[in-house]
Amino acid sequence: MNQAARADATGKRKARILVVDDDPGLLRLLTIRLRAENYDVEAVENGVAAVAAASRFRPDLVISDLRMDQMDGIGLLKELQSRWPGLKVILLTAHGTIPDAVQATQMGAFGFLTKPVDKQELLDHVQKALRISGFAGSDEDWRADIVTRSALMEERLAQAHMVAGTDARVLITGESGTGKELLARAIHQASPRRNKAFVAVSCSGTDEAALDNEIFGERGALASADGSTLLLDEIADLPMALQMKLLRFLPDSPSQGAASPAANVRVIGTTGKDLAALVAAGGFREDLYYRLNVVHIEMPPLARRREDIPLLVAHFLARLSAETGVRKIYAPEAVELLATADWPGNVRQLANVVRQNVALSQTPIIPVELAQQSLGGTPGRMVSFDEARDEFTRSYLSQILQITGGNVSQAARLAKRNRTDFYKLLGRHQLTPEDFKQR
Predict the structure, then answer these.
(1) Do residues 69 and 27 touch, judged by C-beta distance below 8 A?
(2) What is the pLDDT of residues 175-186, one digit of tens each?
């Protein structure tokens, strides 16, 4: 079924429900009832087929019989929970298996319905489960800032949407510029906490005492994020003393430790570093790592989602056109060049290149030569050693600024230069840090 068929007349996405039952008659009845209420329904006859269907269909809710061959409802529940934390499951049971269903709800099932299934009771349970899961009226506003047609990114977004309805902590990893903070904000927007302000703190490049106050102070982030979501950006850079302090603030699980000051704060951490390697090297606390890494989402680099590059380019051009009132487009060969280029700074670097090309282009159509220059290359001519060295240095400095989002202190540390020398290099190559800051 195509995407248009899975949207209602207003353009909002329908809630997707996976129904699992080895009774063909009941399976058909449930499907008819749910489709009559404008839900998008996938029906399968056993638990094994349900796991495969869930990977493809990405349901917002699963309704499953408890007693089935091959994999019963409890086995399916465990498998779904391990793969997609936060996915709600309603179990169907005969009167004789009600004790088993009660046990299943204690294991994480959203609830259970007894057969024969009452239509209104079914619909009430479905509506409640979708509301609690953060389905949010079935539109796509929660992810509006993330531009993609990539199947890999859609997989990450589906994972994010499923976990959004829970209070589970999330660790988002990925290279700089891949959109980790955007995904964190999307999770907040899809969650029941969406009406409270999203709070973000950078753990990098800040004095330890100032960072301590910013996170743990009387009016710090933990206090401000009460009932909301707190993003700890670049959590790997959190000083060891503050790691210990954060550990004391966080309960073992979000559902425990009501006396903790952070009991009603949903914490999301992001990092571009290998936290597991840092733990092994003694640079990050192992207990804090496991407390934060309840659900792990890895943001793919732009090189693994190249099909998104033309779409992103069009998006950035449209945004700049709205800002400036001037509409520019790329020549087809320029788009091809951008789609095949290396992007060490990922989406952030692509956005900066587009902004730079729009500013420098003297014609409505941005030529391939200008795009090539922005990427640090000049095809068709052998350059001198001095030109090549200057070109390399400028490209190197640009990439560092793109990777750090224009943060000169971080960039200087990466280049192993002091700030004064680094500023001189920037001046010599006519680079302005402000041009690389994420807007």
Answers:
(1) no
(2) 999 999 999 999
